[in-house]
Every structure is written in C-alpha cells, then in structure tokens.
C-alpha cells in the first residue's frame, strides 16, 4: 500500500513560519513512529498570486482533490489588500473549501489547564473548557448569489446573499450530531430565526435531523445570544452547530477563551472519498498575522494541533494524535510560552522554533 499523501500549502505571512514547524513534527513521526507520508508542497494565497497571477493555480486545485489531506497555513496580508477582489489571497482558500466541498468545519476550543490563568475570562469560567464548533463552510452568505457592487439610483450598492438549501443544512447537522454522540451528547444550534428566513429553515432542518439522534440533547439559540453566552458561561456548551458567517465570528471569540488565537486548530471535512477517508483540509483558525510576520514570534501550536486533527480524522491515528496533544499539554504545563501566551509585553518567551523544539523533546519523552 502506498503512503498516505499530504499536500502542504503554507500560504502567506506566519502561515509559512508555522508550517515549517509542522514539517518538523511530520518528520518526527516518520523517524520515531515509522509513519511515512508522501508530502508535497505548493502555493496558495498571495504567494500563488506572486507567481501565477491567481491565488490558487488550477494544477494546485487538482492536486488538492487527489491527496488524502491538505494542510494549509494562512493566506492574506497588506501587500494584497488592494488587489482586485477576484484574485485576493482569500479567494484561493475559499475556492479550495468550495471545490473540495468541505462542508463541515470543526473548530474545537479547548482550554489547556496551564493556560486557564491566561484567558481573558476568569479562570473558573474556562478551566476544563472543551467545546466543538461545527461551522457550515461551503454555503451561506460567503457564496450566495446575487452578490457584487453595483450602481442604483446614482449610488453604489453592495450585495451579498444568505442562501441555504435544506440539504446543505442537513449534512452539516449530521456531522455535528455525530460528533455530539461521541462527546457529551449536547448540541446547540445557533442562527437568527427571529430575523432571517434561512434561520427559520435552519432551525426546522436541525430539529428534523434530531429525530435520528434522540440521545442528543438539542437546544436552539439566537447567534447574538450565543456570542454573549460564549463569554458569560462557555462551559454550558458541548457541540455548537452554526452557519458559515456566524461560525467564523463565534470561533474567533471561542479562541480567546483558550488564551490565544494561536492555539486553535481546525479540520474542514467533506464527503468520504473512494478510500473511505473524508475529503479534508486542516488549517489553524488564525490568519497570516502581518503584525508579527518574520519575527519568529508566531505560536505554531494551532497549526501543529491541526496536524493532530489530520492524524485523527484522515489517518485513523487517534492514539498518535493524542500523543501529540499530550506533548503540547506537557510543554505548556512546563511553562514554555510564545509571546502571545504571555501577558507582560516586555517578556519575549520562546520563538516559533523554540516552541517546536520543546514539543519535539516532549514527544521524545513520550516514547
Ligand atoms: P490574524 O488571525 O492574522 O491576526 C489577528 C491577531 O492575532 C494578530 O494580532 C496576530 O498577531 C495574532 N495572531 C494570530 N495568529 C497568531 C499566532 N499563531 N501566534 C501569535 N499571534 C497570532 O487576523 P487578521 O489580522 O484579521 O488578518 C490578517 C490577514 O490574514 C488578512 O489578510 C486576513 O484575511 C487573513 N486571514 C486568513 C485566515 C486563513 O488563512 N485561514 C484566517 C483569518 C484571517
Ligand atoms: C477563517 C478566515 C477566512 C474565513 C477568510 C480568510 C476567508 O477568517 O478561516 O476563519 O472568513 O472563513
Ligand atoms: Mn476567521
């Protein structure tokens, strides 16, 4: 049998820096756990635009469709802010998600004990926090038509359309219920059924799917209240299922509960391929962080934890994923910190590669 294949797309800014660290982790698993991957690397975002004039070359798109999993760093940055909308770096990422049909975006927010003090919320509110946001990723206002900027009555009008079919809502809901079944069997669905028809349909469809998962306790919440509840009492949640835009915002919000955006991984999953594995892309929740690019300050943990999710969801290596997560937990418990995990702006902590050094040492100790 051939080795599982991985396409690495570091992208822009700190995406390149954190992905270099993930490659070291992949090499560790090759050398010490005899897990070999066929790794290839390509361009996405601004890096692809610089070379090809588009944020994702068709050949890269084709490769992404063929591999067992894609790992993506981050895209975007000020150098590309004034580009035409159609070739902005973010379009490359959105094309990958859409054409691979990665409809279920899993964004776990777990607070490591060692960081409970560091969260912007009180320690008792976040200690032991473990929630999973399932964000619908291929539809909604991100992709709905009509869209664009046009003239009307002598003024510019910007249009985006929130559009959901029941099939789109249902397949994401099934993914969320399946996850809830493996966790604490609690699912909270978030929309704005009070003001949006798509929200009314969302609530109806999720309620219908619930009939197949009677063991799961289902609740519905308006997304604005959900945002408030996430910072008031986050531990009330187990799995949250929400749409593309609300999920984008709520997951950044959940990120800060864990201490830093530099901690949050994600898995974007689609339908099973011929080999039974889901189409998949793994990426940190954070962006290219232009403010710290090139300074060795980026926290690589979100991206390394995204690789752990790949081990679990694409390669049936749950035990090795747990090994990697435990190594990260140990390093944090030992007090190793990148700058984003330190409150004193004058203390520098370890560098991006220093954090990986510590994680690799903890992995060695785990053997
Ligand atoms: P961002 O996530 O890049 O940064 C927000 C803040 O968090 C910054 O202060 C940054 O320094 C900090 N931060 C983020 N990741 C960090 C890490 N690993 N370690 C330490 N600190 C970290 O969001 P932004 O500034 O709003 O966006 C910058 C660019 O990234 C934009 O072009 C945006 O479109 C893009 N973006 C891309 C993705 C993605 O590729 N998935 C996600 C979000 C934003
Ligand atoms: C994310 C990002 C993306 C999104 C952007 C960069 C397209 O914010 O992955 O959270 O809005 O989905
Ligand atoms: Mn986002």
Automatic annotation (TrEMBL):
Pfam families, per the entry: Iso_dh
Amino acids binding Mg(2+): 224, 248, 252
Assembly description: Homodimer.
GO CC, alphabetical: cytosol
Pathway: Amino-acid biosynthesis; L-leucine biosynthesis; L-leucine from 3-methyl-2-oxobutanoate: step 3/4
GO MF annotation: an example: 3-isopropylmalate dehydrogenase activity
GO biological process: L-leucine biosynthetic process
Gene giving rise to this polypeptide: leuB
Family recorded in the similarity comment: Belongs to the isocitrate and isopropylmalate dehydrogenases family. LeuB type 1 subfamily.
Protein keywords: Amino-acid biosynthesis, Branched-chain amino acid biosynthesis, Cytoplasm, Leucine biosynthesis, Magnesium, Manganese, Metal-binding, NAD, Oxidoreductase
Domain of life: Bacteria
Localization annotation: Cytoplasm
Function in brief: Catalyzes the oxidation of 3-carboxy-2-hydroxy-4-methylpentanoate (3-isopropylmalate) to 3-carboxy-4-methyl-2-oxopentanoate. The product decarboxylates to 4-methyl-2 oxopentanoate.
Reactions catalysed: (2R,3S)-3-isopropylmalate + NAD(+) = 4-methyl-2-oxopentanoate + CO2 + NADH
Swiss-Prot/TrEMBL site (Important for catalysis) positions: 142, 192
Name listed for the protein in its UniProt record: 3-isopropylmalate dehydrogenase
Entry EC number(s): 1.1.1.85
Annotated positions binding substrate: 97, 107, 135, 224
Cofactor dependency: Mg(2+); Mn(2+)
Gene3D superfamilies according to UniProt: Isopropylmalate Dehydrogenase
Cofactor note: Binds 1 Mg(2+) or Mn(2+) ion per subunit.
Protein's UniProt keywords contain Metal-binding: yes
Residues where NAD(+) binds: 77-90, 287-299
């Amino acid at each position: 049998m051939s080795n599982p294949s991985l396409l690495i797309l570091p992208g822009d800014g700190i995406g390149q820096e954190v992905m270099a660290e993930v490659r070291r982790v992949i090499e560790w698993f090759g050398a010490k756990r005899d897990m070999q991957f066929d790794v290839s690397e390509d361009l996405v975002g601004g890096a692809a635009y610089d070379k090809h004039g588009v944020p994702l070359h068709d050949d890269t798109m084709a490769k992404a469709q063929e591999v067992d999993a894609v790992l993506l760093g981050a895209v975007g940055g000020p150098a590309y802010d004034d580009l035409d909308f159609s070739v902005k770096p973010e379009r490359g990422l959105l094309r990958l998600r859409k054409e691979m049909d990665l409809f279920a975006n899993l964004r776990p927010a777990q607070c490591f004990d060692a960081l409970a003090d560091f969260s912007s919320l009180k320690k008792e509110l976040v200690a032991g926090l473990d929630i999973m946001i399932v964000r619908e990723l291929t539809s909604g206002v991100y992709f709905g038509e009509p869209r664009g900027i046009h003239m009307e009555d002598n003024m510019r009008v910007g249009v985006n359309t929130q559009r959901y079919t029941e099939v789109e809502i249902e397949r994401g809901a099934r993914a969320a219920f399946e996850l809830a079944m493996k966790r604490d069997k609690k699912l909270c669905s978030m929309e704005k059924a009070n003001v949006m028809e798509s929200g009314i349909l969302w609530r109806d469809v999720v309620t219908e799917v619930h009939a197949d998962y009677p063991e799961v306790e289902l609740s519905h919440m308006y997304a604005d209240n959900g945002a408030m509840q996430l910072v008031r009492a986050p531990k009330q949640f187990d799995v949250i299922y929400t749409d593309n835009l609300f999920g984008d915002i709520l997951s950044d919000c959940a990120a800060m509960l864990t201490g830093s955006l530099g901690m949050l991984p994600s898995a974007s999953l689609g339908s099973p391929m011929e080999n039974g594995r889901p189409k998949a892309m793994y990426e940190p929740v954070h962006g290219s962080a232009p403010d710290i690019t090139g300074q060795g300050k980026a926290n690589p943990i979100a991206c390394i934890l995204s690789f752990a999710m790949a081990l679990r969801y694409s390669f049936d290596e749950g035990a090795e994923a747990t090994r990697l997560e435990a190594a990260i937990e140990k390093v944090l418990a030992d007090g190793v910190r990148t700058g984003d995990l330190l409150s004193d702006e004058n203390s520098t902590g370890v560098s991006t590669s220093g954090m990986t050094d510590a994680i690799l040492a903890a992995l060695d100790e785990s053997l």
